[in-house]
Design brief:
The complex is a heterodimer of chains A (220) and B (484).
Chain A (H helix, E strand, L loop, with lengths): L2 H24 L3 H26 L2 H27 L14 H18 L1 H6 L8 H17 L3 H21 L6 H29 L13
Helix pairs in contact in A: 1-2, 1-6, 2-3, 2-7, 3-7, 3-8, 4-6, 6-7, 7-8
Chain B lengths: L4 H16 L8 H23 L2 E3 L4 E3 L1 H30 L5 H23 L3 H19 L5 H33 L9 H6 L6 H18 L8 H8 L2 H30 L1 H24 L4 H22 L2 H32 L10 H4 L1 H15 L5 H15 L3 H26 L16 H15 L4 H10 L6
Antiparallel strand pairs in B: 1-2
Classes of the chains: A mainly alpha (220), B mainly alpha (484).
């Protein structure tokens, strides 16, 4: 693969990551949000695949397939199953911050991510490390979704956005973190989502809905 | 192979519960497993102080004096919590709040929880530490939500969401640190010992980002402000033996990870950076605990906020960084673990006897259940830091080290906050224990709280004559002090 093609494909994949993160902020139907999340998983897998071709590494290709299955297949499927039981509650009704302000916040977060990740880029400038701020932006947007949304399922998506961003940073800083750790991380994410999904269904049993405004029992 | 035993032992316990379930014959398996764990921890601690650190499993597991000490803390609190579990579960089942299936699931998950914690302190690699600590969140989520009431499910949800998000920050920090490490001489990867040894070669700008993320992330799990919001809910809703374990050791296991990160940070950035971060978190935690404890109405939440306070104190000691301060902070971890386990187990019994977790719902406990009330009262006195309990010695040690380090106003502020918290705790507890009892029908005779007494006696013994512990503490602090 020629250098320019590599850089273009890499930037395309990262652009996909960023765009899908912003789309999650923009749209309010949970079904659409889950579909966008699946697209982001595919973009992440594409990113890994580009890096795999570049390095000619079979191991990295296997990881790319793993990422695709987990993040574009299994996780969206679990989310969809959680949504299927939700009945009427299919929309993010009143986010704490409205959509326009959320998009503005996303712009600010992007700038922040670029400012914060300067030392990372400076340590070893290359096409891959120059895309690190995109990964950091996705992490920050995920955190933003997590704190400003009221539906349990939206919060779950926020958590998974953070995780996608972190994984992207992991691959862009090259080498990843070793196979044992990589496996452990993926397993943990899958388990965490399963736990959260079981808890959402339990919440629905006890509260009748998964609007977190109902969560008012515990406080001082 | 010695290092694998502490991880495998609880896994075997879990297997027993998976195969045979919770019944009369297996009720004590978890206590036996914890007892064996304690024996292994003592042997390992003796071995490590005698002949230095050892590794196993192709360098994945490593035990130095600090790991051995943390293992000792885990095992000691686990013995208390699991020894009280059979009586706790039997009472719950008799009251119809649980079934034998709940008992099975509880015991199974507690064993997995112990295995994850022992792995966290024995892992040689920061990535494996992270995986183990995240695994504790997943395992304990169902333990917190065990009672399936509205409040329990809400607490479990908050617990998993906040802790997973916090720990995700730690993962990002781990990745960034790995990036710094691959571009530094020494090829340390994420191996903790190698990273600490080659820390001065790490890029300062990148390491600074990594350290902030790691301290914030693991600080979430350790219950330090600003990401502490899950703690009072989770600790007050979990069943008593689980609260004892979560408050007594899980917080300190997460703090152990911060200590390891701090060594690397001190080597790469000088001692000032991690100290400032930890001082801010410590003082915020203390202030927050003080503000909320004054008006607290629920005694389990009271104990939970007190955990935030004590982890704040440990963070304060760690921030100072001198050998004396670190030794005091580590001793504080053990003393707090024992005292808090006793108190949460006692609070569980009070809840079972009175049916309410409100402070003003429990009046005159001393006249109805003198033994239990005595243990609870002594436990609170231990928490407040009165002699002969070891928390007195460790708090004194931290304060002395702080004045030596020249942090006068920070220490003064911390002491005032500790005094306020102590006064609030004593005030709320005396309202529970003293006074005329409500006109309840006379309940069944309360069991003699042997486990609670044992925990209190160990805590007091530690304060009077620490025995061989200082030797271990001494070599543990050696791994944490950076001379540069």
């Amino acid at each position: 693969m020629s250098e320019t093609l590599y850089v273009q494909l890499l930037d395309l994949a990262c652009g996909g990551l960023l765009l899908t993160a912003v789309l999650v902020l923009w749209r309010r139907e949970l079904a659409v949000i889950i579909r966008v999340f699946a697209v982001q998983g595919a973009a992440l897998a594409a990113l890994v695949a580009v890096l795999a071709t570049r390095e000619g590494s079979a191991e990295l290709w296997a990881v790319a397939v793993g990422v695709l299955v987990l993040r574009a297949g299994v996780l969206p499927h679990l989310l969809r199953r959680a949504l299927a039981g939700a009945g009427e509650a299919r929309r993010e009704t009143r986010p704490l911050v409205n959509v326009a302000a959320s998009l503005l916040a996303a712009a600010v977060l992007t700038l922040l991510a670029y400012a914060v990740s300067q030392p990372l880029v400076a340590l070893s400038p290359s096409a891959a490390t120059q895309a690190i701020p995109v990964g950091v932006t996705v992490v920050l947007i995920g955190f933003f979704v997590l704190v400003t949304r009221r539906r349990a399922l939206s919060q779950l998506v926020g958590f998974l956005l953070m995780d996608n961003g972190i994984t992207a940073v992991g691959f862009l800083t090259t080498a990843g973190v070793g196979l044992v750790v990589e496996l452990g991380v993926s397993l943990d994410v899958l388990l965490a989502v399963l736990v959260l999904q079981i808890l959402t269904s339990r919440m629905r049993e006890t509260f009748g809905d998964t609007d977190l405004d109902e969560l008012r029992e515990l406080r001082d | 192979m010695m290092l694998l035993v502490p991880v495998v032992l609880p896994l075997l316990g879990a297997l027993v519960y998976l195969l045979f379930g919770w019944r009369r014959a297996t009720a004590w398996v978890s206590a036996v497993s914890a007892g064996l764990l304690l024996a292994v921890a003592v042997t390992l601690a003796a071995g490590v102080t005698r002949s230095g650190p050892r590794t196993a499993m192709a360098g994945l597991l490593r035990a130095d004096a600090l790991s051995a000490y943390m293992l000792l803390v885990i095992a000691a609190v686990a013995v208390l919590a699991t020894a009280a579990t059979p009586a706790f579960l039997r009472t719950e089942i008799n009251a119809g709040r649980a079934t034998a299936r709940t008992g099975t699931r509880h015991s199974l998950l507690v064993q997995l929880f112990l295995a994850a914690m022992t792995l966290a302190v024995l892992a040689a690699n920061l990535g494996v530490v992270w995986v183990a600590i995240e695994a504790t969140t997943i395992v304990t989520a169902f333990l917190v939500g065990q009672r399936r009431t509205r409040a329990a499910v809400e607490a479990a949800w908050k617990y998993v969401v906040i802790c997973s998000a916090g720990i995700a920050l730690a993962l990002l920090g781990t990745i960034v640190l790995n990036f710094a490490s691959t571009h530094a001489p020494g090829a340390a990867g994420l191996d903790l010992a190698a990273l600490a040894a080659h820390a001065d070669g790490l890029d300062p700008g990148v390491t600074r980002i990594a350290v902030v993320l790691l301290i914030l992330g693991f600080g979430t799990k350790a219950g330090l402000a600003p990401l502490h919001a899950w703690l009072p809910d989770a600790h007050s809703q979990a069943p008593a033996p689980v609260s004892a374990l979560m408050s007594g050791v899980l917080l300190s296991v997460a703090f152990y990870a911060i200590l390891r990160v701090k060594v690397i940070a001190d080597g790469a950035l000088g001692t000032g950076f991690a100290r400032a971060a930890l001082l801010v978190m410590a003082l915020t935690s203390l202030a927050l605990a003080a503000a909320l404890l004054i008006g607290i109405r629920d005694y389990k939440r009271m104990l939970a906020y007190s955990s935030i306070e004590h982890l704040g104190l440990v963070a304060f000691g760690a921030a100072l960084g001198s050998p004396a301060a670190l030794a005091a902070a580590l001793l504080h971890v053990l003393g707090h673990g024992l005292a808090k386990a006793v108190l949460f187990l006692g609070a569980g019994q009070v809840l079972q006897l009175t049916g309410t977790s409100r402070v003003d719902g429990v009046r005159g406990l001393a006249s109805r259940h003198p033994a239990l009330a005595g243990c609870f009262g002594l436990g609170v006195l231990a928490l407040v830091g009165l002699p002969p309990f070891s928390l007195f010695a460790s708090e004194l040690g931290i304060a002395r080290a702080a004045f030596t380090a020249g942090l006068a106003w920070q220490t003064g502020l911390a002491l005032v906050l500790v005094l306020v918290i102590g006064a609030a705790l004593v005030n709320h507890t005396s309202r529970m224990l003293l006074g005329a009892a409500h006109d309840h029908p006379v309940p069944a005779a309360s069991p003699v709280p042997v486990v609670l007494l044992a925990g209190l006696m160990v805590c007091a013994a530690l304060g009077i004559a620490a025995g061989p512990v200082p030797v271990l503490l001494n070599s543990a602090t050696h791994t944490l002090v950076v001379t540069r």
